[in-house]
């Protein structure tokens, strides 16, 4: 029998040990075993189970690498490329904040130029991972027809985002906080290399706006730890973000930034000088 398992090695039977096995269905699925599988696949969140303690949820969160979203994005790349091939780049370029030339779009992402051809192929001078590639293609497909709101909100305040806000907090905001705290001396220099700019008007110790996509900015606010409080990091988005990009793809962008920064910071002595020269 095939056993649902993710990259960390934990499977649904191991997760079941943390559940009360009452099959109460309060989570919306028939059994606790089904709920365990849904957790691995990223289809359910910990708070969907009223009997799961916060301590158990934290333990599981450290063990589970939810495979569902990343695999789903990889599976979507083919269909997304096919749909992009039907788009008239000339018509959508302005709304996307992109430049049109020779039937290609040049889009400024993370402070670097990304070029997309009419078959959905992407080129850039930096590494392109799935977390960024899929949102970029979806961004082109959605066409950038909404007005830019100019109002900062949390991810959970976006339309249809409340049910996955916990995932964004745990897999985007929290890893960024940990990186900012452990590498404070270079973390914000690195953000600047990828096009982030300081912004005034916030009480945070550091406030940077970066543009993973031209019309989907991320505002990163960071408060350093002191004697009484732990460090804190918040990611805010323009309230129009869900008009430019579906919620799942916004999560993908957040995860893409986390994975990119993790990789660079793990090898910062080697990679930082090279990035500064680009």
Using brief descriptors, characterize the structure shown.
single chain, 278 residues, alpha+beta, 3-methyladenine DNA Glycosylase II, Chain A, domain 3, 3 domains, four-stranded antiparallel sheet, 11 helices, 9 strands, globular, disordered N terminus
Q: How many individual β-strands?
A: 9
Report the structural category: alpha+beta
Q: Which percent band covers the strand fraction?
A: 15-25%
User: What multimeric state do the chains show?
Assistant: single chain
What is the straight-line distance between the termini?
50 Å
Instruction: Record the strand order, biggest sheet.
Output: 5-9-8-7-6
- Return residue spans where pLDDT drops below 50 for at least 5 consecutive residues: 1-8
* Helical residue percent band: 40-55%
Structural shape: globular
Number of domains: 3
Q: What is the N-to-C succession of helices and strands?
A: HHHHHEEEEHEHHEEEEHHH
Radius of gyration: 20 Å
Largest sheet: 5 strands, antiparallel
Mean pLDDT reading: 86
How many helices? The count is 11
Describe what you observe in this structure.
This protein is of the alpha+beta class and 278 residues long. It has 3 domains: 12-66, 3-methyladenine DNA Glycosylase II, Chain A, domain 3; 69-142, no CATH class; 152-276. It contains 11 helices and 9 strands. The strands form 2 sheets. It has a 5-stranded antiparallel β-sheet with strand order 5-9-8-7-6. Strand 6 and strand 7 (206-213) form a beta hairpin. The longest helix is centred in the C-terminal third of the chain and has 20 residues, at 247-266. Residues 1-8 have low confidence and may be disordered.
